[in-house]
Write a structure and sequence with these properties.
Blueprint: E1 9-17, E2 27-33, E3 36-39, H1 44-49, H2 55-70, H3 77-82, E4 88-90, E5 94-97, H4 102-112, H5 123-142, E6 148-153, H6 155-159, E7 169-175, E8 178-186, H7 192-210, E9 219-227, H8 235-251, E10 254-257, H9 263-271
Parallel strand pairs: 8-9, 9-10
Antiparallel strand pairs: 1-2, 1-4, 1-5, 2-3, 6-7, 7-8
Helix pairs in contact: 5-9, 7-8
Length: 272
């Protein structure tokens, strides 16, 4: 959504939530501004206002709305919100000084949503969620004392010595003669922009390890693992998914879609 600005003036709109349209009661849950949607991840005010919609469902709706806003023009927001009516609606445009700085975004969020934190979990929170899910998936397959799993593994964990400029991987699975470096992403919690950024970062880290000599002659395999349990409905999400898989297949030795029926079997074949 492109910001409409003229002579230093921009626009923002309030995203309103009404769990019971017949009552007419509504509460502001987000601010659409500068091609983005700002909202409170914990929904503290919403919980006091209504218990009808669980937080995880609210997060799903707002992630979808935010994604559509980010990939639409400014004048399309009313059309976007029609798909979510009558539960969600948008206010008339309001004027604000342009350019939209981070302090202005924070002011809008605090004023209308009563929360000082910008939308969504942090990058580290998302990474930790991925670490846990990847470790659970791998544990189902490994099941052997011959392997050691190291979460958020550094070059020191992998090689037994520091390697300057080489990053960390989500999980290292080590045996005396073999090392699997595992990383990837979870499409269920990342928006398309983050999918592209995360896949590029993972591929770059795999590239770094591919250029680094092994000190003891072990076999090193780089494994990209993608979790995509829910269907990607938006065209932008499908595009990001396809891009990530294409990048992983070029930059990893093996790419596994963990949610597919053959995901565990594919990983097991690498451990034989």
């Amino acid at each position: 959504m492109e910001l409409m600005s003229k002579s230093g003036v921009g626009e923002y709109r309030l995203l309103l939530f009404q769990p019971d349209p017949e009552s007419g009661e509504r509460i502001c849950v987000g601010v659409a501004v500068d091609g983005d949607l700002l909202y409170d991840l914990e929904f503290s005010r919403v919980r006091c206002f209504s218990q009808k919609l669980p937080p995880e469902i609210m997060r799903f709706y707002l992630r979808d709305i935010r994604n559509r806003i980010a990939h639409s023009r400014a004048d399309e927001i009313e059309r976007i919100l029609k798909d979510f009516a009558p539960m969600f609606l948008v206010s008339a445009p309001r004027k604000i000084v342009d350019p939209i700085t981070e302090s202005i975004r924070l002011m809008l969020l605090r004023r209308f949503v009563n929360k000082g934190e910008i939308h969504g979990p942090s990058r580290m929170q998302i990474r930790k969620q991925y670490f846990g899910r990847l470790k659970d998936f791998t544990s189902k397959v490994v099941g052997s004392a011959d392997y050691r799993m190291i979460e958020n593994a550094s070059p020191l964990d992998v090689f037994g010595e520091k390697r300057r400029g080489v990053g960390r991987v989500a999980l290292a699975v080590k045996r005396e003669d073999r090392i699997l470096l595992m990383d990837g992403l979870d499409l269920n919690v990342l928006d398309p922009t983050a999918v592209v950024q995360t896949s590029a970062r993972v591929v770059h880290t795999f590239w770094q390890y591919g250029r680094t000599p092994m000190p003891y002659g072990e076999t090193l395999r780089r494994v990209a693992v993608v979790f995509n349990g829910r269907q990607q409905e938006a065209a932008s999400s499908r595009d990001a998914h396809a891009f990530a898989l294409d990048q992983f297949r070029k930059g990893a030795d093996e790419t596994i879609e963990a949610s597919s029926g053959s995901g565990e079997e594919s990983l097991a074949s690498l451990l034989v």
